[in-house]
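Follow-up to my post from last week.
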Amino acid sequence: MLRPTPFSSLHGSNRSFPRVAVTAGFILTTASCARAPAIFGTYGLAADRIAVLGWVFTIVGCAVLAVVSVLLVMALTRRRKRIAESDESTLEYSGSDHAVRWILIGGIAIPAVILFFTFLVTLVIQAEVSSPPRKAVATIEVTGHRWWWEAKYVEADSSETAITANEIHVPVGEPVRLVLLSADVIHSFWVPRLAGKTDVIPGSRNTMWIQADKPGVYWGECAEYCGLQHSHMNFTVVAESPEAFRSWLAIQRQPAAVATDTATDTLIARGLDTFRRSGCAACHSIRGTDAQGRIGPDLTHLASRNLIAAGTLTNTRGNLAGWISNAQALKPGSGMPAMKLSSQDLKTLLAYLETLK
Amino acid sequence: MAVTTAPMESTEQLNRIWETRPGLFGVLGTVDHKTIGKRYLITAFVFFLLGGLAASVMRWQLSRPEMHLLSPEAYNQLFTMHGVTMIFLFASPILSGFSNYLWPLMIGARDMAFPRVNALSYWTFVMSGIFIYSSVLIGQAPDGGWFAYVPMTELAYSPGLNMDFYALGMIFLSISTTIGAINFVVTFFKLRAPGMSLNRVPVILWGTLSASVMIVFAAPALTAACILLFFDRHFGMHFFDAASGGQPLLWQHLFWMFGHPWVYIVVLPAIGLASDMIPTFARRPLVGYTFVVLSTITTAILGFGVWVHHMFATGLPQMAMTFFSAASMMIAIPSGVSIFAWIATLWHGRPRFRTPLLFLGGFIILFVIGGINGVMTAPVPFDWQLTDSYFIVAHIHYVLVGINVFPVFGALYYWLPKMTGRMLSERIGRWVFWLMFIGANVAFFPMHITGMLGMPRRIYTYQAGLGWTDLNVITTVGAYIFALGVGLFIFDFFRSLKHGAIAGNNPWDAPTLEWSVSSPPPPYNFAVIPVVRSRHPLWAERLGEASSTAGPELPVLEDGRETIGTSMLDSRPQEVLLMPEDSIWPFLLSSALLVFFYGILTSLWWLAIIGAVGLATTMTGWFWPSAPPDDHSRLLPVES
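User reply:
Got it. Predicted complex:
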């Protein structure tokens, strides 16, 4: 498991990025960044308890399957007619009285006892996971869009709201409350290693809590069919020490490092100008600038993220170039149009975006 | 029970009366339940192949990460049509085919209660299928999933005709399903042969009866949902539009109030088929017949009380969800009753291995797996991990392939000889079974694991490095092995028509009435309506049951298309029912409906009006009274 690393190729010498990026099609290898998802082998309190419930049902289920299979095979084979026996017309008609006991015991009594026991276990676990162990230390408003996740860290003082996309940080060992919203259709927020899933439904406000008990990067997915790019609507939950979390959050609250054209580096200044001229602000916001678009993700701290395009690509210069140039080739149907930028404009834009740490 | 034979002139007369007229009128106008049953079977099987074709392409796309065989839109249309085709156009109609063909033969009747309605249910089925599939021809097949959740299927997010084909197609199809169900219910209660009291009725009748009653109550929920969706999409309504005070979850409630009963509708008749086949191969009557019948009815009732388990992740109140969670666990018990009834029957019998029994053994194992992984989704918190993942895909395929497809294939090997007069091949049959059984398990078992590794449903591709790739390859291989088995069956079927062994009346030495007539049966089914004194008419003497030949003999009933109407519980003869002749009205009415629905779909209101006028005209023609006494049944003298 790798710790997330800030985007750091500011000093790289990769010159042929646009075409190389697009044709090479750098697609994420998840294992390089996040722990692959699973519902057993969990790292969060809610998922841990649910896994216990899951093991109970899985083991009981497998036991029932084994017993019934053995009984069936025995029933089929113990007195089967051999091919040589030619008397087809005989019938077996031993009295059914004790045969009905099969049904009463195997079909009613035993299943009822098993199901009663498993239902009790269910109620215990359900009570445990319905609320966090203690008060949540943070509240994050998560909004599902087609096809990306917006995360807003809600504070009492709204001037300090951190807004990010597709990467949610949480402090290790602390419960965090999520308020789940949708901007369009029904999606579902699912981080298997940490908790069960909850749908985001337009017009509704669902809430859930998560707690990660080990530091790491956890893979998250949209789990409700939501259209063309439901497959590429992923995100990560990054669990880190409370101190690291607070310093991350402090940075995320800040407006963009470079917000005006008076940057000392003219390449970067021209990049901000490219951003404005190319219409990016129609969809994206960069806090501190006049870019206030709400359709696509907030880019204020784009360079601090591991992945882009909702978990589709690692956040490298080449991938970012490829995404900007031809998002439709990488994520057809997504809201990001293929931007026709000259290679010079792209270069300046990338230089600017790299400052958004 | 010895079949009472009729004199030769009577059989000739009966042939003349009951035979379908030759030529186009006969093809379009036949009301013979056997022909309609065979048409249902063939049409449903064609849809099975189309749905399987969609799945085969999907599995190729999913066999490796980030494949580009299909665009996202193409994949979304394929997976939606796979679901719609299999669930609506195959799973229920194939069982209607068996029920339609077998019921009158099993209950000693000459036809179903409403033969023209029977024809109408077939024609509306095939035309609604054509309607839905015509969307493929213009590349706008439904793409919102077979469950069509709003708001994604509202006009804003689904601007094309895709979901209009879906909404209107479902309404059209529900006409077929509902009238077919009503026909079954009335036939069950009024057309059984004298003496066939309720406790002597083959289990397939109980299964189809339960499913039919469920249909009558469940189908309106889907029809309502689709009408509301269509109104939202095209008439400016906001039933599901949250921004205007509507409720997205209303769709889910309406859909699953229909959808959950529907999954029992597509398995209860198949369970009935299995319960009727197992005794033949166990060489003994079914153990616990009453328990099996009661468990069928209990499942049908409980099936209306579990629908919220499809919505556990939507944020509903915990108390409400817990109730449905408990009900979803309880519904496993009637299934357990049936399974142990079958095991007990085989245990206390002398199993004779023929191809149908292989499919029945496979069916029981797959049923148990599907039932267990279903119960695993009943606890709410664990369902929060499992729902919308490939674990559910595993569950649905184990229950659908296991409890519908496998009994169906067993039933094909068992009853096709009755329909065609030719046996299928035992040798090829074994190959078909093992390819399908191994293929199904290789395809679907890994999905339990893929789901537990976090793979969501309804994705057109996935990324490398998530641990899903190898399992998807295995699943794809399994799917193609299964397809090979199905292909081999088709080969065996066509081969058997020319080269299969002659079946004779009762090749399996089975107990029920359909095996007392020739293979294929004469158009009039029974020359003389039998009097039934046993649950196993053809085994009664060997089992030492009540003598079957005593009792009043019924008249041959050769003055036109006649059969006996009996009382509901004890099946005492009450009247002679006059059955309709072949009629063109069902075909014309269905055609008018097709025109009507195309008019609505395309917003060509003149076309819709033509269809509506056609509908009114054909209904008038259908109901136009004919001169007495031709349309009157006559009562029989009351017997003590």
